[in-house]
Design a protein that fits this description.
- Helices cover 71% and strands 0% of the residues.
- The mean pLDDT is 85.
Length: 59
């Protein structure tokens, strides 16, 4: 899972890949349900990127 990745760059790459896939899904959507699902995937990828970008807690 990308969130568990020790490498922020690798985790960001996972989020980017998910966002790219969401755009592909949206481009190929044939009905409203498919568009909504693609939007959900994109929002989840954006949220994941925000988590990745948060500063690490001090240990």
């Amino acid at each position: 899972m990308a969130v568990a990745d020790d490498e922020p760059a690798a985790a960001s790459a996972h989020a980017t890949a998910a966002r790219d896939r969401a755009w592909e899904l949206e481009a190929g959507a044939r009905d409203k349900n498919q568009v909504v699902l693609a939007d959900i995937v994109c929002v989840c990828a954006d949220d994941l990127q925000e988590l990745i970008d948060l500063p690490s807690p001090a240990k």
